[in-house]
What does this fold into?
Amino acid sequence: MKLPDRFVWRPREVARGFAQAMDVIPYIGILGYPVAILLWATGLIGEAEPGRGQASWWFTGYVVALSYLPSLLVCFLVERQARKRGWPRVRMVARTVRSVHFLITYAPMLLLLVLLMLPRSWVSF
It folds into this structure.
């Protein structure tokens, strides 16, 4: 009986696993809903005038976060149908739209968190 090698480098398997892991990230964005609601609520506390709330960037972020779930659902359904019917290009477009909407929704928050973690000497503003 031959024992298997301890480690065998298989780039295609590694790339396929990485792609599958990256494909799950937009679905994890659903967990950001409580954070979006909290940030929107805390950002609007200091607004005295009723009309100013809708003009704030907090409200814009909140609306974008709320539109994320229906977009994710539509992309999931389109990708599922494309997988069943064998349409690889439609599936690729659905994945791309889902990932782009994820970046539009959560990249500003993630960028802000990264900037807050950097040392003061690295940040110019």
The two ends are 64 Å apart (CA to CA). Residues 30 and 82 are 23 Å apart (CA to CA).
